[in-house]
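subagent[fold] <- orchestrator: predict structure for attached chain, return tokens only, no commentary.
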Amino acid sequence: MKHRRFMIVVGAATVVAAVGAFAAFRTPPWINQAAFDRIVIGASLEDAEEQVGLPPGDYSTGPLIADIPGHRGCEGPDRIMYRVDIMPDTIEKRWLGDFGVITVYVDNDGIVQDKDFIIARRKSGSFFDRLWRHLGL
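subagent[fold] -> orchestrator:
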């Protein structure tokens, strides 16, 4: 009877560990075309953050490759290639995720003047490469 109870506890612990690992390595899915479409030009940066569900930042789990028409998997010095015709007198705020990059251009008053979405995907790597990146090692 003790052996059976032990096996049930070990099985339950394994399931909890598997679910925890899945949750830990899953990237937030909110950085996508649908979130980009909800951002309205003329809205405040706070409204844009509310539409995405996160503050601007890098939520990707590793280096990204951009799917830019006319380019083949471009990468830039800060992990992905971006638009070069930046609007004058604006500040870029960016959300990076494993499914894309949202960039909004806000003026000094924090109002969204323009926005871009680039479809991106994670650069492939081994399980251990992703694990080390996720752990910051």
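orchestrator: received. Logging for downstream: The chain has one domain: 28-135. Residues 71-82 have pLDDT under 50 and may be disordered.
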